[in-house]
Specification:
With 439 residues, the protein is mainly beta. Helices cover 4% and strands 38% of the residues. The protein contains three helices and 26 strands. Strand 11 and strand 12 form a beta hairpin.
Length: 439
């Protein structure tokens, strides 16, 4: 009997979109429900790396039904379906988790036959929410290993639990894992924090519509529930993936000493009218993120919303905390009248020489929302700046843009002949197994 669960026994994996689709893909790119045909069939559940915590809660909203002649309630009925709030915290070390969660990031491609070319030519011509906003169920021939690239919203999320006292990392048999499955999950918020002396940390919040508990992770029915009946989709199954084990050559996290923050005016101006020298500002910490307001699409005869699409406008913000140095001259009213726009660029590097950018977050064409300064006895004078920018799919001159290395540990394995040559089809294309759908 298990007395408790500790951190080394747990890991998080995310399923494909939409959550009602098949969770397996064969080596030709065909989606299917075959849970046993490994290694020619690939598991589409992807593990999230460097996860620090998982927490969830749910609240049941009950309506008190009363009637004349009775003091007490007739019934405390559930009128609206309850939702589950799921929080996942991970350390930033590349953008693999962000990409697997459905954010549209730019990244270098290293999967065969690519050798590092960026997926998008321009970092600032990428709609961050495109894949969460889209509803096209297509599978382009040019990207056969990426199911529905324009629909990465509404997922199933799985928490694997290994046997007591056993590390989850490296377990190959999904039957040895207990599982907590979260069905019909929508990303609600993304928040990145970093400060001097602390490793950059990302918190994501999800709204889910179901929780399932499994005694093993092999060939189980997915935790998705039908919106009309609120019953299981019992014809689609999943296997828990094997969670990656990192060696000493992998970039596990980004250290605070390898982070730079730059503030610049769009017209090369400074924030002088606010009394701030942006170039020489001593940044101590930052907080960057956005929230996604979701509009439930409720229909008569349906027990759950059939969708929860993003409700625009979406505003991204970044707050910079700094030590106050030189105070510049300026006027608050001049600043309001000019209402200039600014770019905030946060770059994170690896520890190599020369340094390479691993992750980059750019808030472009932002507005200065607030400025705070405070001082006290026996302490430094502190300041805080908050910039905001609208994420607008129809106007990519402003918004939040994320780019960098995915830092994927394993791209795929080529099948070999007994003589050690690549196994190919009649056209010379290599057969590949364990090949993820780009992420």
């Amino acid at each position: 009997m298990r007395n408790s669960n500790i951190y080394n026994t747990k890991g998080v994996a995310i399923g494909p979109a939409p959550n009602t689709g098949y969770h397996f893909m064969d080596y030709t790119g065909g989606l299917n429900d075959d849970t046993a045909n490994y290694p020619l069939n690939n598991d589409l559940l992807m593990d999230l790396s460097r996860v620090q915590s998982v927490s969830y809660n749910f609240n049941v909203q009950r309506e008190n039904i009363t009637q004349l002649g009775k003091k007490g309630t007739v019934k405390r009925a559930v009128i609206n379906s309850p939702t589950v709030s799921l929080d996942i915290v991970h350390l930033l070390g590349g953008l693999k988790n962000e990409a697997r969660m459905g954010l549209n990031v730019n990244y270098p491609q290293y999967d065969y036959p690519n050798s590092g070319a960026a997926y998008y030519e321009d970092n600032f011509n990428v709609n961050l929410l495109q894949r969460l906003d889209g509803r096209e169920l297509d599978q382009p021939l040019i990207e056969p290993f990426w199911p529905h690239p324009n629909y990465q919203d509404r997922r199933n999320i799985f928490v694997g639990v290994s046997e007591e006292g056993e590390d989850l990392k490296g377990i190959e048999d999904p039957a040895k894992l207990g599982v907590i499955g979260f069905g019909n999950c929508y990303l609600r918020a993304y928040n990145l924090q970093a400060s001097v002396g602390q490793i950059p940390t990302v918190l994501t919040n999800w709204t889910c519509e179901n929780i399932e508990y499994y005694d093993n992770g092999s060939g189980q029915v997915i935790p998705t529930v039908d919106a009309k009946t609120r019953e299981h989709l019992d014809n689609i199954h999943f296997n828990m993936p094997s969670f990656e084990v990192y060696d000493e050559t992998d970039l596990s996290v980004i250290s605070p000493g390898n982070i730079t923050v730059e503030i610049s005016g769009v017209d090369n101006s400074d924030i002088l009218n606010f009394g701030i020298d942006a170039i020489n500002t001593n940044i101590q910490s930052f907080d960057l993120g956005f929230s996604l307001e979701r509009e439930p699409l409720d229909l008569l005869e349906y027990k759950l919303p059939v969708d929860r699409q993003i409700n625009y406008p979406i505003i991204a913000d970044v707050t910079l905390n700094y030590l106050v140095g030189e105070t510049e001259t300026g006027s608050f009213f001049d600043a309001l009248n000019e209402d200039k726009r600014y770019d905030v660029s946060i770059k994170m590097f690896d520890g190599c020489t020369p340094r390479q950018i691993v992750s980059r977050f750019d808030l472009k064409n932002g507005l200065l929302e607030s400025s705070d300064r405070s001082s006290q006895v026996r302490g430094f004078e502190n300041g805080k700046l908050t910039f905001t920018a609208e994420i607008n799919p129809e106007d990519l001159s402003q918004g939040l843009f994320i780019s960098g290395d995915l830092n994927i540990h394993k791209i795929g394995n080529n099948l070999l002949t007994p003589g050690g040559l690549y196994l190919t089809d009649d056209s010379g294309n290599r057969f590949v197994v364990d090949y993820p759908p780009l992420f």
